[in-house]
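Researcher: For the annotation table, I need structure tokens for Regulator of G-protein signaling 8. Please keep the output clean. Sequence:
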Amino acid sequence: RNRGMRTRLGCLSHKSDSYNDFTAILPDKPNRALKRLSTEEATRWADSFDVLLSHKYGLAAFRAFLKTEFSEENLEFWLACEDFKKTRSAAKLASKAQRIFEEFIDVQAPREVNIDFQTRELTRRNVQEPSLSCFDQAQGKVHSLMEKDSYPRFLRSKIYTDLLSQTQRRLS
């Protein structure tokens, strides 16, 4: 727990005017990733939030941005729900649902997402008899929140604009 705070403070002290360290965003071979990422692809992330979420590097860049805002739990929850919906084993369904609930939904959860009381209570009831759709409402609320709030800020962020200019620089 302590290490996380130090890392966060370390990130803050290293902020500069230009975002050139793409290793944080594109952990698997950032230079190769940057070569593979076309300006066209990176520009398409601005078309819609779902286009951004469906692109491997778009998702990575958005996650890096959310970390600078200390709100990556929203994306982590959304991704956990996407993974949860792929659960094929009935035996795993209940334990996975419980784990997601305890990590993201419950009051005072370690990575509590910002949802209203009604949605939290509905999700609490759904998790008692879990189905693949038990997080749908909560996931929808978190998706909307990110789309209305974080996504527009991401598109104006240093991370995104510098990434775009990196891809354009390659072309010249």
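Researcher: And a one-line annotation?
Model: Residues 105 and 120 are 6 Å apart (CA to CA).
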